[in-house]
Every structure is written in C-alpha cells, then in structure tokens.
Amino acid sequence: MDKAKDDVPENGEYVAICKENNPLSAAANGHSEVFPRALVIVKDGWATFYRDGEEIWNCNARYAAANFVLQKE
C-alpha cells in the first residue's frame, strides 16, 4: 500500500479543529483564520476551509490532515 496516499483524507466534508490551544499559537502557525474550528471540504487533494458560508483559507489536504484534527461531518 502506498503510504503517501494514506496520509491524504478522502474527498468529503469535515470539521477541522485546530491543534493549537489558543489564538496566539494558531496565529504563530498561520492558522488564525481557522481557529478554533471551521468546516473544511476536501476535494482532489485540496482542502478549502469555510466559516459562515465564506471561504477563509485553503491548503493541500495532506497539510490539513497533519495540522488539524479532521472529523467527518
């Protein structure tokens, strides 16, 4: 099995929860837009984050999986 493919979340909707415990830590890691949580849609290896129906941030899906707790919606 290809380990690289295992690290990428499947296409779908998730709740992304920041691993940082406070806004300052989230800002230091560039995650302030997502803190403390946001909806994320993963599609074709790309993660797009939303709050109140508006896109707030995006990144590679592998990065999202490594830096946020992703819970299936």
Describe this structure as you would to a colleague.
The protein has helices spanning 3-6, 23-28, 61-67, and strands spanning 12-18, 37-43, 46-51, 54-60, 68-72. By secondary structure, the protein is α+β, with helices and mostly antiparallel strands. It has one domain: SH3 type barrels (Roll). A 5-stranded antiparallel β-sheet has the order 4-3-2-1-5, covered by helices on one side. β3 (46-51) and β4 form a beta hairpin. The protein starts with a helix and ends with a strand.
Short characterization:
The protein is α+β, with helices and mostly antiparallel strands.
Q: What overall form do the CA principal axes indicate?
A: globular
Q: Roughly how many Å apart are the termini? A: 26 Å
H and E order: HEHEEEHE
CATH architecture: Roll
List unreliable stretches of 5+ residues: none
Query: What share of the residues does DSSP label as strand, in percent?
Result: 35-45%
CATH class: Mainly Beta
Write the layout of secondary structure elements.
Elements: H1 3-6, E1 12-18, H2 23-28, E2 37-43, E3 46-51, E4 54-60, H3 61-67, E5 68-72
Antiparallel strand pairs: 1-2, 1-5, 2-3, 3-4
Please supply descriptive tags for the structure shown above.
single chain, about 70 residues, alpha+beta, SH3 type barrels, 3 helices, 5 strands, globular
